[in-house]
Batch of 3 targets.
Target 1
Amino acid sequence: MQPYTVFPDKPIMDNGPMARTFLSMDIDDFHHACRYVHELPYGYNSDREDPMILFKEKMGSCTTKHAVIATLATELEIAIDKHIGIYAMIEALVTGTKPILDRYNLPYLPMVHCFLVFEDQRVDLSEGNQNGKNGPIDDFLYTEKVTANISGKDEYLLYRKALNAHILPRLEFDGIAIKTILKAREEGITLLRANIQK
């Protein structure tokens, strides 16, 4: 992943609700907006479907942080897209993963993370945050471009589709049912939430 400074900088003009929100906070250029979002504490918002929840709760997850900046980029006509990726969650990346893998007999736990893409550069505005992980995610099993404010339901459906098409056919998942991965995923989400509090 690259720092947000790989993005082109641009003055924020009153081109939409996201731009107006940043301007109301005296944030008047794109890089400053990225820095503001990156420096906000990492946390799971109460309503990920609300595009302004990050400002109301003064924190955000990879989902809401990247939704805000991708939306602002669209308003400013900067060619930045939000992508989701499925990564291999293991003990080295997320402390406490091994018991889950052992319980479900999995080689790793396929989990969703999101990031921004400009040209061929990937940027994660939650990298370096207290986000439940021991380091950055640089390798993905599968990635796909999505809308900035993809709903939780649509993201879950995309995840299931990617599991069936791209993850389960892998040799290391031979004989493992999708329902096993989905049950383990719920425990993985609980673990990540718990790790943020530590």
Target 2
Amino acid sequence: MNRPFITAAFSLALPAMAHHGWSEYDSSKTLTLTGKVIASGYEHPHGHVRLEADGKTWTAVLAPPSRMENRGLAPDAIKPGSTVTVVGYPNREKPTEMRAERITAGGKTIELR
């Protein structure tokens, strides 16, 4: 095999190797948080919201932007100042992080997985 081919094949595989699994989240425990969004990101590989809920600042890892858009969650629905409800699983190591399974924003509930 030639070197350019190997280099190209390896570089295409990097994004797949870099993507994490979900084992860092405890799917045996469900969290439901309602709070005010203080920051949000609608970027790859996953969107996120930081919200104030239960006296803490939480980070909720969302779905990829394309999935959120396809399911009807516009970026402005999770802008700072919005109130959202997020249902998901807590991170095993980070006590204020969760993986969101669904989000309710602007009166609309979106399944993220």
Target 3
Amino acid sequence: MKKQAILAALASTLVVATSVSAQDRDGWPESFTVGTASQGGTYFAYGSGWANFVAENLGVSGGGEITGGPMQNMALVHTGDLKFGLTTLGPASESMKGNSPLAPGMKMDNVCAMFPMYETPFSVTALASSGIKSISDIPDGATIGFGPAGSTSDTYFPRMMETLGVNFERRNGSWSDLGGQLQDGLIDVVAFAAGVPVPAVSQLEAQTDVNIISMTDEEAAKILEAFPVSEFEIQPGTYQSLEEPSRVVSMWNFAMVNCNVPESFVYEITKLTMENNDKMVSIHKAARHSVPENYDKNNVLPWHAGAARWFNENGYSIEESQIKQ
């Protein structure tokens, strides 16, 4: 009788577990796609790896998609063409206010924050053979690669260069393509805005000598006053050629989600990501900053209720007014 009772209890437990599981997954998509950016950049490596990590652990098919970067991701997630995406807070703010060059006047307010990713440093790279060791060394009329059109780099770096008095010709393309053009002498400089180490720079310095260019105190002060950025140092060892800290500026990135995605799905993804930082770092080193303590760096996007629930349950305070209702 005892054995029968135990078996009956186990069967009851399994039924309850199955029922709870089915309820928790109510409305979950059969698959999902994460908007990243161009190949050779950090977004693509981070986003694709993260999507695969989520898919493997939650049993939902998912993957990364090459896009034009933060601005386009905001548009795709707002409209629901993609459920998830990666964005930088500067472009996110402009998009929410209706100032995106991709859709002028459209306020992209159906996008919610999920979790902090990392800071995007704005860094300049040139071939050592060019003799360019500082921003002031960039010759008049130099051709500068600013990444994909509409990317964070393309949105802000040209304006930064103009603020610093640099006269340049603008070139767009994927980070991999621009790295190749720099190596072939077709452009003079690449102005990267991506989490470090940038795969394209790591690949480039494995094949030739490069200069990772720092800002002077005066240059950094001008940029900090004119743009929504903060100070940042690229540490020695990030790149083989970097022997001392490189002073630059940076902007925070967040993973985002369409606000209509089911709360339970977003909760489970946030939980998985925030509680497994070692796995995230194995996907990309920049993820060492993808920790819950950095949630307060978001001062732009409303929080998804599912993400906010995980943060509030774990001692991080997100007020009701900050959560998309």
